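Hey,
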Amino acid sequence: MSRHRPGRLACFLLALWVAGSRVTQAAIAFVQDDVGHNSATTSLAVAFTSNVTAGNAIVLLLKTVSTVTISSIVDTLGHTYVLAQENDAQSMRTGLYRVVNISGGANTVTITVSASSSVTAVVLEYSGMATSGELDQSNFNSGASATSGNHGSITTTVGDGIIISVMGFGGNPGTITGTSGWTARQVANVRQYPQDKITSATETTSGAITWATAQTWNGVIANFAAAGGAPAAPKRLMLLGVGDRARP
C-alpha cells in the first residue's frame, strides 16, 4: 500500500528572471565626403574617393540659384535621391537629398540643372542610418544681409540619429563659426557651409551659425533616425513546480 511521506515530498518554487533584452541601435557614423563646384554649368559630377558600402546612406547637399530647377540627380549605382528639404529664398536654391540602403561600389553623383549656373554639391556617406522611415523632421530659413542665421528650428522625436544642415550665402561671408558641438564637413567654396551632429537624445535645434561679413543667407536642416528599434521591455518568466511523488 502506498502512502505519502511529506518529509520526502519535493515541493519547490523556482523564479527565473530573464533580463529584458534591449534592441541595440547602431549609432550613425560618418564614413566619407566629397565635393564639387562649378561657377557656370548645367551638369556637375561629384565622385566619392573610395567605394561606398552596401547598406549605408548617401546625403547630397546642393546649392545653385533659384532661377534654375533641378532636372535630375543620378549616380553610377542607379540610386533614386529623395528630397528631404529645399529652400529657394534669397535668389538661391538649397536642397538636402538622401538615399538609404545603398548598393556598394565606385560611385559618382551627377546633378543636372535647367540652365547654366553656379552649382555646388557635397556628397556624404554614413553608416547606421535606418533603411526606411529615416526622415524625422526638417525645416528651412533665410534672411537678408546679416552676420548670423539659422536653418529653421526642429524638435527631434528620435534620440539615436543625425542632424544635418547646410547654409548658402549670397557672397563671401568670411570666417564662419559653426554650431557648438557640430562638425563642419566639406566646404567647396566660401558660399556654402555644411555641418552635422550625431545624436543620442532628442533635442530642439536650429543649427545657428555666425559669419564675419554680412550676406544674404539660405539654409535647410533635417534629422534622420539610426537603424534599430526601440528598447524592449524587461521580461520576467515565472516557473512553478510542485513535486508530489508517491512512495511505498
